[in-house]
Write a structure and sequence with these properties.
Blueprint lengths: L20 E5 L3 H10 L5 E6 L3 E3 L4 H5 L9 E3 H4 L6 E5 L2 E5 L4 E4 L3 E3 L2 E4 L3 E3 L5 H6 L1 E2 L3 H20 L3 H8 E5 L3 H21 L9 E5 L11 H13 L3 E3 L4 E4 L3 E4 L4 E3 L2 E4 L3 E3 L10 E2 L3 E4 L11 E3 L4 E3 L12 H19 L14 E4 L5 E5 L2 E5 H14 L3 H17 L29
Helix pairs in contact: 1-9, 5-6
The structure holds flavin-adenine dinucleotide.
Length: about 450
């Protein structure tokens, strides 16, 4: 490829090519599946991401609870595309799309495209509750997981220092908001930390010092799964002493005290938000194509409505049809299948071949609730327990990018399976809350 001839209009240097240029924004599950489909084809593929690594979000909770180290679940794009001669990676955040000139504007410069693919995923949705957002931690980025880990370890250390009982309660109470898979898995992992790690690392505390609350707005956990999965999960969590509050939602959090819609108050300095996501994408897409959840409306071929050469895939895409009135589920399988599908479609478009509409194949859902327990809905088979957990472990292990990463995760899991030991619980960087929290005083009522 000829790097001496960067297009004059581009301020990010890319080699000239006789092939059509496809720019992909976002190297998540969807973007990477597309890259894999179009590697070695007669196409110039340019992947932009604001990070230089792909993140395996389903295991964020394990990093947050010190079960895994972060580098075992993130994987560098340059390693992923090594040997793919037609694929280029550029580390930049895309800020704007100028659809009239087929150009993207990034924080590092601009580049033109022949086809553009939006695969930018989602970010936390706090539903306008700014105060809750300012004081809590979401789990949408590997840095969030590390923040949760550091917050947790620092607060447990501070609890050993403080002489104030109420302050200690707030430091050792953990609130997880959202009873979907991320919230349930986080609650289970924290409960196991409390059961197996706390007595070893902090012998001065009784395990009862750490309280884990899981708050869910509707009357069941894992609402997208079967009733069996939902009720089993509730039982597993209760067995692990998680306090599950159903039909309850958070209305306020000042960094030290959580208030719920039903008027309950809980002293807590640790609030982990998994209750909702919304699409994130650069500006420039006409607002009339943006639907519920800040997703981008596409046609049956994942083409963004109103544009001839812009596509959306993964969590950001909403393919609204009679069969999918709310779009496809925002899960890894849907993102991967859309990435693969679009790869084939783009080849067909370039070769003037007809397109078939996208069809999602639901391969089932899995969620784990602590070690050796999980729930599974695979077609008409609904099961729970050890076999479901084994299946969960195999599926997740095989889905992680990179042989070395799979090896590291497998090794850590094997050790933890036999010993309940997790990785070293080091406070390497100082976690500072986004906003200073009030010091707890005895005037606050503790209603646990
Ligand atoms: C905690 C958690 C647990 C989950 N557990 C499961 C699970 O168990 N099973 C399951 O199926 N799904 C799970 N999911 C959902 C799953 O991770 C998502 O459905 C999937 O990641 C969506 O893939 P995507 O490619 O659309 O977006 P993402 O994977 O989110 O990737 C988006 C990419 O775009 C990049 N990006 C965003 N904006 C820009 C920009 N402006 N410029 C440049 N780059 C940008 C980001 O850096 C990122 O790399 C979980 C999600 C979370 C958060």
């Amino acid at each position: 490829m000829d790097y001496a001839n960067c297009k004059i209009t581009d301020t990010i240097c890319l080699p000239n090519s006789d092939f059509p240029r496809i720019v992909i924004i976002g190297g998540g599950f969807a973007g990477l599946a597309l890259v894999e489909k179009l590697k070695h084809k007669k196409i110039q593929l340019v992947l932009f991401d604001k990070n230089n690594f792909h993140q395996f979000q389903p295991l964020f909770y394990q990093v947050a609870t010190s079960a895994l180290e972060p580098d075992s679940i993130v994987f560098p794009f340059r390693k992923q595309i090594s040997g793919y001669k037609n694929v280029l990676f550029r580390l930049a955040e895309v800020e704007e799309i100028q659809t009239f000139s087929n150009t993207i504007i990034t924080n590092k410069g601009k580049v033109h495209y022949d086809y553009l693919v939006l695969a930018t995923g989602t970010t936390n949705n706090f539903f306008g509750m700014d105060k809750v957002e300012n004081h809590s931690l979401g789990m949408k980025d590997i840095r969030d997981s590390l923040n949760i880990r550091h917050m947790m370890l620092q607060n447990l250390e501070q609890a050993a220092i403080t002489c104030d009982d109420k302050e200690r309660d707030a430091l050792t109470n953990f609130i997880i908001v959202g009873g979907g898979p991320a919230g349930v898995e986080m609650a289970g992992a924290l409960a196991e930390f409390c059961k197996y790690i706390l007595p070893k690392d902090y012998p001065e505390y009784p395990s009862s010092i750490m309280n884990i609350y899981l708050i869910e707005a509707i009357d069941k956990l894992l609402s997208t799964m079967s009733n069996k999965a939902s009720s089993k999960t509730l039982k597993y969590l209760k067995d692990l002493n998680v306090k599950v509050l159903l039909n309850e939602s958070v209305s306020d959090f000042d960094g030290s005290k959580v208030t719920t819609k039903n008027g309950k108050t809980i002293l807590a300095k640790n609030l982990i938000w998994t209750a909702g996501v919304k699409g994130q994408f650069p500006k420039g897409i006409n607002e009339k194509h943006i639907v519920r959840g800040n997703r981008i409306k596409t046609d049956g071929n994942l083409k963004v409505e109103g544009y001839d050469n812009i596509f959306a895939i993964g969590d950001i895409a909403a393919l609204i049809s009679e069969a999918t009135p709310k779009g496809h589920p925002q899960v890894a399988q849907a993102a991967i299948q859309q990435g693969k599908y679009l790869g084939n479609s783009i080849l067909n478009i370039i070769n003037n071949k007809p397109l078939k509409p996208f069809k999602y194949k639901d391969k089932g859902s899995l969620a784990t609730v602590g070690k050796r327990k999980a729930v599974a809905d695979i077609g008409k088979f609904k099961f729970a327990g050890y076999f479901a957990w084994l299946l969960w472990s195999i599926v997740h292990l095989m889905s992680i990018s990179g042989f070395r990463n799979r090896l590291m995760v497998g090794f850590n899991w094997a050790i933890s399976y036999f010993t309940y030991e997790k990785s070293n619980r080091l406070i390497i960087r100082n976690f500072k809350p986004k906003t200073n929290t009030k010091k707890i005083t005895s005037k606050v009522n503790n209603q646990k």
